[in-house]
């Protein structure tokens, strides 16, 4: 899941992001991850590799995006060639579903779902997004992967009226400026946005469904069946649909301007997506979480989340930046950390990273968009969120749950 914080400098304003997980820590000496020189990034192109860019974000932002990975998505009216290529769709391994800001769909008309709930409120870590449910065909334009007739979330669509009070939390994220992207491609570990446990009831998940009257004059809470929920788009592809790999290069020094990488579709389905020497950490089948330990503290909720633009965790030994930048850490000197991640079966893996002074990094590199040493305090002190900061220089796997094979989701690198 995403988390948007603000790092305020004069005249620069920059944004941050976060995800979710659960389990218990294990002991022993974890194996080290592969060194950066071993990294191989698959070139974008057919049949299964999409281009990623980490840049300052789409037009219309009031905050400059940092550590945010984007792809482009071709969205089409079902069964037609009436399409619109939408850039700056955020890649999020901590949520599920294709969600587009309604203003970015100008020029095409997506039909509403034909039955069942027709609106959704999705709760992110920092705020809520409200909008209608529609049907679309989609294509990832570089790899050529296609999905037909999938349910998508149209955020900020006025046809379902104003968000109900339940969906007006700490922040509403219904515009490009508030959302930090033109949309989001959620490629998290589950097959739909309430995982595979069954119907999506109201108030029990981050996804909450509604049935709204024409024009949005009134909306009532609704239950969504598995078939009615917003799906993980990758799962709907004909092939290469069991997981994704986010491959971003190591960043030279503390920062870098607009690096590019690859979103590889499928795991173990092509010559370019083998698990190889990566260590697999099986996650909790219900939550998609693993566990972590750092400096003697055990975190029962841990995950690797590309939708978070920093590593978020609680550490009282680290200095928090002064207001209004208290969403980040500002140590006097760079701090080297070495966490241990633990998956099912007590499989462990070292997770080394560094924490640098956020205010200094941004003020000294005002045009840069990639910050591998960016970290901040977590909203939940029991959570350990390795965000996009951790992804630089690593190929990070997110394996999807498989209901038919009764297998759990997993992370690997």
Structure, described:
The protein is mainly β. 4% of the residues lie in helices and 34% in strands. The chain has helices at 176-179, 358-364, 388-391; strands at 5-8, 13-16, 49-54, 69-76, 83-92, 96-101, 119-123, 128-139, 146-155, 183-187, 207-212, 219-222, 243-248, 260-265, 280-282, 290-294, 297-304, 311-312, 335-342, 348-355, 375-376, 383-386, 394-399, 410-412. The protein has a six-stranded mixed barrel. It has a five-stranded mixed sheet with strand order 20-19-16-17-22. It has a two-stranded antiparallel sheet with strand order 1-2. A hairpin with a 2-residue loop joins strand 16 (290-294) and strand 17 (297-304). Mean pLDDT is 89; it is low at 4-28.
Quick description:
This protein is mainly β and 413 residues long. The chain has helices at 176-179, 358-364, 388-391, and strands spanning 5-8, 13-16, 49-54, 69-76, 83-92, 96-101, 119-123, 128-139, 146-155, 183-187, 207-212, 219-222, 243-248, 260-265, 280-282, 290-294, 297-304, 311-312, 335-342, 348-355, 375-376, 383-386, 394-399, 410-412. The protein is built from three helices and 24 strands.
What share of residues is helical? under 10%
> What radius of gyration results from the CA coordinates?
20 Å
With strands numbered from the N-terminus, the spatial order across the biggest sheet is: 4-5-10-6-9-8
Global geometry: globular
Question: How far is the N terminus from the C terminus?
Answer: 20 Å
What amount of the residues lies in strands? 25-35%
Q: Poorly predicted ranges (pLDDT <50, ≥5 residues)?
A: 4-28
SSE string: EEEEEEEEEHEEEEEEEEEEEHEEHEE
Tell me the number of helical segments per DSSP (H or I, 4 or more residues long). 3
Structural class: mainly beta
Reported for the largest beta sheet, the result is:
6 strands, mixed, barrel
Number of strands: 24
Mean pLDDT, all residues? 89
Instruction: Give me the oligomer status.
Output: single chain
């Amino acid at each position: 899941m995403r988390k948007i914080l603000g790092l305020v400098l004069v005249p620069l304003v920059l944004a941050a992001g976060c995800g979710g997980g659960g389990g218990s820590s294990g002991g022993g000496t974890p194996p080290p991850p592969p060194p950066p020189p071993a990294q191989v990034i698959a070139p974008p192109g057919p049949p299964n590799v999409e281009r990623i860019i980490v840049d300052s974000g789409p037009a219309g932002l009031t905050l400059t995006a940092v550590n945010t990975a984007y792809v482009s998505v071709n969205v089409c009216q079902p069964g037609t060639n009436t399409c619109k290529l939408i850039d700056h769709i955020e890649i999020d391994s901590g949520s599920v579903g294709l969600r587009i800001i309604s203003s970015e769909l100008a020029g095409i008309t997506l039909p509403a779902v034909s039955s069942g709930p027709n609106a959704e409120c999705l709760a992110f870590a920092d705020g809520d997004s409200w909008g209608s449910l529609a049907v679309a065909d989609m294509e990832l334009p570089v790899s050529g992967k296609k999905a037909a007739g999938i349910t998508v979330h149209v955020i900020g669509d006025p046809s379902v009226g104003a968000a109900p009070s339940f969906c007006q939390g700490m922040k509403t994220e219904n515009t490009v400026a508030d959302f930090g992207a033109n949309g989001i491609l959620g490629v998290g570990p589950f097959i739909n946005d309430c995982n595979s446990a069954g119907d999506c009831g109201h108030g029990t998940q981050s996804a909450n469904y509604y049935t709204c009257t024409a024009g949005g004059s009134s909306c009532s809470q609704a239950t969504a069946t598995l078939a009615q929920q917003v799906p993980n788009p990758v799962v709907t592809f004909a092939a290469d649909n069991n997981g994704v790999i986010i491959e971003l290069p190591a960043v030279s020094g503390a920062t870098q301007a607009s690096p590019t990488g690859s979103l590889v579709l499928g795991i173990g389905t092509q010559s370019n997506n083998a698990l190889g020497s990566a260590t697999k950490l099986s996650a909790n089948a219900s939550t998609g979480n693993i566990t972590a330990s750092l400096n003697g503290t055990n975190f029962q909720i841990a995950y690797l989340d590309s939708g978070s633009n920093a590593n978020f965790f609680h550490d009282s030994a680290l200095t928090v930046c002064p207001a209004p930048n208290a969403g980040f850490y500002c140590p006097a000197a760079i701090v080297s950390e070495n966490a241990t991640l633990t998956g099912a079966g007590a499989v462990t893996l070292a997770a080394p990273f560094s924490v640098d002074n956020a205010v200094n990094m941004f003020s000294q590199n005002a045009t840069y968009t990639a910050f591998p040493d960016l970290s901040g305090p977590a909203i939940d002190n029991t959570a350990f969120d390795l965000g996009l900061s951790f992804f630089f220089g690593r190929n990070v796997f997110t394996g999807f749950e498989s209901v038919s094979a009764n297998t759990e989701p997993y992370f690997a690198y």
